[in-house]
Design brief:
With 333 residues, the protein is α+β, with helices and mostly antiparallel strands. 42% of the residues lie in helices and 15% in strands. The chain is built from 11 helices and 10 strands. Bound molecules: zinc ion (ZN).
């Protein structure tokens, strides 16, 4: 294999620092990131159509950290969400990183910048420890892109596995092989978390091999037919372990978070029952809750659609959910 990819990376890095002194513009050089490199990676790895390979140098403004990402579109179609394999260039264009990364923007929107850093870091560490497929030569932890901006700093913390290269270092063969290895970890992660990595229910459980395997099978929906035996085995393990070890088997209805946010926006965060306004969260944003008028689970099988949703204050939401019939009746009077 000729070293086309590695040449492109070197060429781009050299030019980019010069280019960014001028106003944002699409140039033959930036096309390396947005067109050529994605195409070479796709072809070089013979990726099938479910993968999206794309890159960015910013839109309207130069971004501090250019990148090229490989996304499994069944997980997410944009780097703001989900998790993906990505090449991140260091701000000084001296180095680049190949990472299994978690989308920063989804965490920032959900938790606010400060809280998001903790959440995304915990998430990355958690899955970094859980995955069995960390490729050799890769590390766990934070990376240093020398970023000054919030987004770039978000990239630095949202990393599960990474490998650092000097711009001039890797051959195409090495780089493609590393990407191929990392795609295996990407796949393993998908088997465990599915399409939403945001709301990891973190506890301090320690996971031994059997529990890990069990979780994986639950995640892919291919539980052994002999489920009782499986559970009994796990109960046995759980009973032998110290009390901090917990096994939690949880069935959850998948909701669309965007609808929840939309419904709150639609009501200007004002409770649609008692008209109470929102309170201000630590992150400065207004707090309200989205409620399904006809509940999603149980007999009613309500729809996860804004037409079946309303914005409520925490108090009304709690009464609607947990209150007695009389409490609920009082609420509406
Ligand atoms: Zn209310």
């Amino acid at each position: 294999m000729a070293n086309e990819v590695s040449k492109l990376i070197q060429e781009f890095s050299k030019q980019f620092l010069i280019e960014t002194k001028n106003p944002y513009n699409s140039t033959p050089n930036t096309k390396i990131i947005t067109d050529t490199l994605p195409r070479f990676i796709r072809d070089g790895l013979k990726l099938d159509k479910k993968y999206k390979v794309y890159g960015s140098v910013g839109s309207g403004n130069w971004s501090e950290i250019p990148w090229v990402a490989i996304l499994d579109t069944s997980i997410s179609k944009s780097t703001t969400e989900g998790y993906y394999v990505v090449i991140l260039f260091d701000k000084n264009m001296q180095e680049f990183y190949l990472c299994l990364s978690v989308g920063w923007t989804q965490f920032e929107q959900e938790f606010g910048t400060r809280e998001a850093k903790i959440k995304i870091r915990t998430t990355c560490e958690y899955y970094g420890n859980l995955l069995d497929t960390k490729p050799s030569g890769f590390n766990k932890g934070l990376i240093n892109l020398h970023a000054q901006n919030k987004l770039g700093k978000g990239y630095e913390v949202g990393v599960i596995f990474f490998k650092k290269y000097l711009i001039s270092e890797p051959t195409d063969e090495l780089l493609m092989d590393d990407i191929r290895q990392l795609l295996i970890s990407y796949y393993e992660l998908k088997m465990i978390v599915g399409d939403s990595i945001l709301n990891l229910d973190l506890d301090t459980s320690t996971y031994d091999k059997d529990i890990k395997d069990f979780r994986k099978r639950v995640a892919v929906g291919s539980l052994s037919p002999n489920i009782e035996k499986e559970i009994l085995k796990l109960v046995k393990i759980a009973n032998q372990e110290p009390p901090e070890v917990m096994l939690r088997l949880k069935k959850e209805i998948v909701r669309n978070r965007k609808f929840a946010n939309y419904v709150k926006e639609r009501a200007h965060y004002i409770c649609e029952i008692c008209m109470r306004g929102p309170f201000v969260q630590k992150n400065g944003g207004p707090y309200a809750e989205a409620d399904h008028v006809s509940p999603l689970g149980g007999k009613s099988r309500g729809l996860d659609s804004p037409d079946n949703m309303r914005c409520l204050c925490a108090q009304c939401h709690a009464i609607i959910t947990h209150g007695s019939d009389i409490e609920i009746k009082n609420l509406f009077e």
